[in-house]
Amino acid sequence: MVQVEIEEANQNLAELIARAASGEEIVIAQTGKPMVRLVSMAEIEPDISKGEAQDVLSEELEENNSLIEEMLSAYEEEIH
């Protein structure tokens, strides 16, 4: 398992998604507190087709980007 802070995850999201898709567990933290876990869709839904997984991943990526932006904004408000 790898844990990264929100800012690092925001800067390296594509790489982290690729690593999670290959089976590595990625935890995104806010000031050291684990908030989100990225895992391969194969671990969640093993019977999903590749096309379905790509569709789900695209939707999840959009949702995760929104969540990361919200968490990053909250983090920035805390430090200012």
Number of strand segments: 3
Write down the overall geometry: elongated
Structural class: alpha+beta
Taking all residues together, what is the mean pLDDT? 87
Question: What does this 3D model show about the protein?
Answer:
The chain has 80 residues and is α+β, with helices and mostly antiparallel strands. It has one domain. The protein has helices spanning 6-11, 13-21, 41-44, 50-79, and strands spanning 2-5, 26-30, 33-38. The protein has a 3-stranded mixed sheet with strand order 1-2-3. The model has no long low-confidence stretch (mean pLDDT 87).
Observed structural traits:
80 residues; alpha+beta; three-stranded mixed β-sheet
